[in-house]
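__Record contents__

***
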Amino acid sequence: MSRKNLNIGLYGFGCVGFGLYEVLQKTPGLKANIRNICVKDKNKPREIGIENFTFDQNDILNDDDINVVVELIDDADAAFEIVSAALKKGKAVVSANKKMIAEHFTELLELQEKYNVPLLYEAAACASMPIIRNLEEYYDNDLLESIEGIVNGSTNYILTKTFAENLSYDDALKQAQDKGFAESNPILDTGGFDAKYKLLILLAHSFGYVAKPSDIFNIGIDGIGTLELKYAREKGLKIKLIAQAFKAADGKLSAFVIPKFVSPEERLYSVDDVFNGVLTKTSFADTQFFVGKGAGAHPTASAVLSDISALSYNYRYEYKKIKQKEDLILSDDVTLNVLLRHKKEDAETFKKKFITIEEAYTNNEAGYITGTLTLQSLKDIQSGNNGDRSFILQNIVTAKETAIAESVLTA
């Protein structure tokens, strides 16, 4: 199969943009060149000459010789404006902006269909790990039951440092920021929003369900305290921020992002530092495991490069699961086994929310409860949280286990 020549218009020249520029120089077999680069700041020092840049986004959009737009800016609203304009101009697009894609997924689907041009965004999910294309191509026939994983490298780096080096949360966060893994305002990562946006994208390609960001519940790692860290160390566990989705036999789909205790027997236990890891479970192939770097300029640039290479062969997402139009319902009807850390005075109120309680401990200031509750009850407790409580998932309780627990309570 012959490859077509690609003339690229690049928006953004930060760490990933420069990383892409570097890796393109090292892949001469790919018939792709950066024809123009659009940036905002005229006075910012650049690694390459000023003659390579423009400061008017229309210079790229109106250049008929440019057939691929690569969007690598950090402003989701501006990114959508650029991407939608490029698609309307008939230009293929590669983007790494997970927030933009998550917030405008349906609109972007319609634009691709209307103007018959592809939009690829492998780098928006798990950086160097090609999970989207695997979900699109490998799992198009096998019945996917669940997907779960560490999809945010910044939070995984912070949690790794708190356990491996006994750093405080603040010190680990500062180190992540100094290394360029976390932004100066890190709440997108530490609050679990970045993981939620990625999970939304993975939902579309794994189950064919298009959700809005507000549909998916997320808790980040910014509320984790010393009590939970001590509990994990005493039990020989690690804490990981996990995004997961699973489909029940009745067609109900559950999806959320919550920190989780992970034991040494689990695959995700050894996924540390800025690495991402994703587990898929299917009806026929059982469990499969993907791992790769989830943060950093070159890992992200490698995923962008992979999309550019795919475009040279006229590849596009077929959205097979979405087109199957399976009648799925996103549901809170799931029971979770969790640890809830709370203020001393809230202990009795929160105990009433639990279906079963395994352990309860309270000191002079705070305490924790371990046991089972519904996802809806968890949401109720989390509502209005000002940092005085946190949840760590232990495991998802099966429908059979929930029925047994409820029958014991009502006996």
